[in-house]
């Protein structure tokens, strides 16, 4: 019995000690007994694994306690379904959340091991692309910290986000073999294995009660095997579980060939079914139309739902009460097939009548939308869905039929309206619109920032919002202050602690008490000292990664995010060109480092070209003696969570310059502002709420609003017209066009200039003048170090709204209807356990 509630006295745990001698002993033991190394011969990686195994024991011990309490207390559980988890390195995060970071450093030091040296050897768990995957990781951490019974489900990709190398200025992708050295943080659960079916056909049975039930027969089966990653809450609170599925060939994978006597072929072919969990698709905010992607989506959804149903049964709850005991959150439409899978399980396995099954399903699910961009909206050809998931296609037809009947009744005669609402898009060769399935199958649908949710209701889901206005709600994103402040920025953390104590770490609202210190000269000076140290740390890393030497005593201006036209890296690059030309013209320009970082989807040629142009412009700028150290342009390669923790605390200026209406929320904007960077940004995504929080005097807002962008688009002004009133901009674009910055690849530069002048759907040139003015304003404020530090400190103190804890509470209260279930801390006498 898996979900037992009866503690067996014979199985009582003897708690592990968490003082330095106890940890030292555990690490030494693990080195020999788990890693299997003689301490005299141990490499730094052996020590990394030894300490990780010692900590893992302590985490899993608390996981056991947490799980038991949930089972005893009859709690309602939350299941977060996400194709992506962008976690980063786990050792330091686990140590800090377990409250044993300092003592473990001490224990290692006693063993003659340097914590920093071994910690950097850990591979990032990069099972995600960008914002969406990182949000999932922050939400899991917060659910554990706040004591919510939250379970993550996803895929254990063998290869995560590709490693980005820059060769001859261009991005080259290398596979991310992150499991190469084994992974101390995972617990394989071979006994938790579920079959997942693809293809085959449906056989209908007419039952005596008038219902039809179906059997999905034949086809191919793959096994989903669980790997568990315990997720520790901050300061030895609850430990929750992230369960990632890996594909394994079924035991009878080989029957056909075995019968033909081809043993070798049978064993060799098993690899094919195991490709399902092989690799993360490296596309951010674009839909992938590949059959393998659909199989990945269904694979993890089916395994997760079987597991959720199983747990419900083991706890001896009646199936009718599923939605009282569980809430399932769909992170975008990637897991939306879960709506049909849930119906299949209720109808075909549990023999529940349609209407009752549908009520349960709708009460169970809710869906988060992360984008309005049409190219990111998933639609699957009906023919493909019919072939891969024939039973689900039948269920989707019926869901659609029942839904259209309902609206036909409420809105008689509005045939256009029904056509637009339908799950089936009949205009582009019959496709299943996954967003429609997700909306219809959920009781709540949320956007991720106020502007985004309001645009969702006005555009993408305008029709649905007429049908069900109360279904659409906003939950503005947040980020975890544990990783993004305490871990990434110990200097700032110490400064805050010294002024207001350390309660703010659990309740970010208390950071407001820090605001008065913005007008305290000593605090401002201490803040500048912290920034300087953070810049030195970044400068050292930049030197190591790129060979480029940058000064720590200048403005650090950063744009760090996926490379995408709508995010407008080209707008920042034009500003670099402007500064370059001004310095060449003998003007006195504020010295600065401009740092770009981010990956381009391997198939997104324009984004890859943008990386190449940035690198080529940087090469000219960085080697021109006329710049005299006043301008450096860095492209920081292979941006990932672990590099973000170094770049963000060093930033002065945060570039959040997407075309208004396109960035759903952004979360990098939050991380940077809470580390004391001032934002230069458009009124897009959460920037609007950040402005409201920090005050208009403490942020640089520029450019067209979302409304103006729509109006501007309607006017159809050729982008090149914006050069007429701006001679400087003309000379910049012409320099680009004429290959001034090119290293032989002139054609690329000419093409980018042509794009800006003739095509650019994101209005870089239209917004340039306003952007350049805003940059100049930032420069002026930076020259007044006291005024800048005051604004930066006010940013830190006023960002509490963007704690992920607030976000998670909103989901819990308004969508999931679940309560926190904090596990009481172990008795204080038992020494830090
Ligand atoms: C992704 O990272 C986001 C949206 C998507 O549709 C996909 Br696919 C991937 C991002 C948004 O672009 C950000 O604006 C947002 O902050 C983030 O999701 C988290 O909500």
TrEMBL record:
User: What would you give as a GO molecular function for this chain, any one?
Assistant: pyridoxal phosphate binding
The protein's annotated catalytic reaction(s) are: [(1->4)-alpha-D-glucosyl](n) + phosphate = [(1->4)-alpha-D-glucosyl](n-1) + alpha-D-glucose 1-phosphate
Gene3D superfamilies noted in UniProt: Glycogen Phosphorylase B (3.40.50.2000)
Could you give a single Gene Ontology term from the biological process aspect? glycogen catabolic process
Family stated for the protein in its record: Belongs to the glycogen phosphorylase family.
Functional note: Allosteric enzyme that catalyzes the rate-limiting step in glycogen catabolism, the phosphorolytic cleavage of glycogen to produce glucose-1-phosphate, and plays a central role in maintaining cellular and organismal glucose homeostasis. Phosphorylase is an important allosteric enzyme in carbohydrate metabolism. Enzymes from different sources differ in their regulatory mechanisms and in their natural substrates. However, all known phosphorylases share catalytic and structural properties.
- Write the protein's name: Alpha-1,4 glucan phosphorylase
Record organism: Thioalkalivibrio paradoxus ARh 1
Q: What is the lineage of its organism?
A: Bacteria, Pseudomonadati, Pseudomonadota, Gammaproteobacteria, Chromatiales
């Amino acid at each position: 019995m898996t979900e037992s509630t009866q503690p067996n006295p014979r199985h009582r745990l003897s708690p592990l000690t968490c003082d330095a001698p106890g940890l030292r002993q555990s690490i030494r033991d693990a080195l020999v007994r788990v890693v299997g190394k003689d301490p005299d011969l141990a490499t730094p990686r052996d020590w990394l694994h030894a300490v990780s195994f010692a900590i893992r024991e302590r985490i899993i011990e608390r996981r056991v306690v947490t799980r038991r309490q949930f089972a005893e207390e009859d709690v309602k559980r939350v299941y977060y379904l996400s194709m992506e988890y962008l976690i980063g390195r786990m050792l330091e995060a686990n140590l800090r959340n377990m409250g044993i970071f300092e003592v473990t450093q001490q224990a290692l030091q006693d063993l003659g091991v340097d914590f920093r040296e071994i910690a950097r050897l850990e591979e990032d768990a990069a099972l995600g692309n960008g914002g969406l995957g990182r949000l999932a990781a922050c939400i899991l951490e917060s659910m554990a910290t706040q004591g919510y019974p939250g379970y993550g489900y996803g895929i254990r990709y063998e290869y995560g986000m590709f490693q980005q190398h820059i060769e001859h200025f261009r991005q080259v992708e290398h596979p991310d073999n992150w499991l190469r050295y084994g992974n101390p943080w995972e617990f394989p659960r071979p006994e938790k294995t579920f079959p997942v079916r693809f293809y085959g056909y449906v056989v209908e049975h007419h039952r005596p009660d008038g219902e039809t039930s179906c059997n999905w027969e034949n086809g191919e089966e793959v096994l989903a095997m669980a790997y568990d990653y315990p997720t520790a809450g901050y300061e030895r609170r609850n430990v929750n579980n992230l369960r990632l599925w890996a594909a394994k060939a079924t035991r009878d994978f080989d029957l056909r060939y075995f019968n033909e006597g081809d043993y070798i072929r049978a064993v060799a072919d098993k690899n094919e079914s195991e490709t399902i969990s092989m690799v993360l698709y490296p596309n951010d905010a674009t839909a992938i139309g590949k059959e393998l992607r659909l199989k990945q989506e269904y694979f993890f959804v089916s395994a997760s739902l079987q597991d959720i149903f199983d747990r419900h049964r083991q706890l001896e709850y009646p199936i009718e009460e599923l939605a009282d005991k569980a809430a399932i959150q769909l992170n975008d439409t990637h897991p939306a097939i879960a709506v049909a899978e849930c119906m299949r399980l209720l109808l075909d396995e549990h023999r529940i009548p349609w209407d009752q099954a549908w009520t349960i399903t709708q009460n169970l699910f809710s869906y988060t939308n992360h984008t309005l961009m049409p190219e990111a909206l998933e639609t699957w050809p009906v023919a493909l869905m019919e072939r891969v998931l024939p039973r689900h296609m039948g269920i989707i037809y019926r869901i659609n039929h029942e839904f259209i009947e309902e609206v036909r009744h409420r809105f008689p005669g509005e045939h256009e309206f029904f056509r637009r609402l339908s799950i089936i898009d009949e205009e582009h060769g019959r496709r299943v619109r996954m967003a429609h399935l997700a909306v219809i199958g959920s009781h709540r649908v949320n956007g991720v920032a106020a502007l985004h949710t309001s645009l969702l209701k006005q555009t993408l889901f305008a029709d649905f919002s007429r049908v069900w206005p109360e279904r659409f709600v906003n939950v503005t994103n947040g980020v975890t202050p544990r990783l993004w402040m305490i871990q990434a920025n110990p200097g700032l953390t110490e400064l805050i602690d010294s002024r207001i104590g350390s309660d703010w770490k659990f309740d970010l609202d208390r950071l407001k008490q820090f605001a008065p210190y913005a007008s305290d000269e000593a605090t401002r000076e201490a803040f500048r000292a912290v920034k300087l140290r953070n810049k030195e740390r970044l400068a050292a890393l930049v030197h190591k990664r790129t060979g480029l030497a940058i000064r720590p005593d200048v403005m650090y201006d950063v744009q760090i995010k996926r490379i995408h036209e709508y995010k407008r890296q080209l707008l920042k690059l034009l500003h670099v060109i402007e500064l370059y030309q001004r310095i060449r013209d003998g003007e006195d320009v504020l010295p600065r480092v401009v740092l770009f970082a981010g990956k381009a989807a391997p198939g997104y040629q324009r984004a890859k070209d943008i990386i190449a142009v940035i690198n080529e412009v940087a090469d000219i700028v960085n080697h021109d003696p006329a710049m005299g150290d006043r301008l450096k342009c860095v492209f920081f390669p292979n941006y990932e969570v672990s590099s973000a923790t170094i770049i963000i605390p060093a930033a002065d200026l945060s570039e959040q310059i997407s075309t208004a209406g396109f960035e759903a929320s952004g979360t990098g904007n939050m991380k940077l502002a809470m580390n004391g960077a001032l934002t230069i940004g458009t009124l897009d995504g959460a920037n609007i709420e950040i402005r409201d929080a920090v005050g208009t005097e403490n942020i640089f807002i520029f450019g067209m609003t979302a409304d103006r962008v729509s109006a501007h688009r309607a006017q159809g002004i050729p982008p090149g017209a914006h050069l007429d009133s701006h001679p400087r901009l003309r000379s910049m674009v012409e320099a680009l066009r004429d290959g001034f910055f090119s290293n032989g690849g002139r054609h690329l530069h000419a093409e980018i200039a042509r794009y800006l002048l003739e095509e650019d759907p994101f209005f870089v040139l239209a917004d340039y003048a306003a952007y350049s003015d805003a940059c100049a304003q930032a420069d002026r404020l930076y020259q007044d170090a006291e005024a800048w530090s005051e604004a930066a400190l006010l940013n830190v103190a006023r960002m509490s709204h963007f704690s992920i804890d607030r976000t998670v509470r909103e989901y819990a209260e308004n969508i999931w209807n679940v309560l926190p279930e904090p596990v009481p801390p172990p008795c204080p006498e038992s020494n830090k356990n």
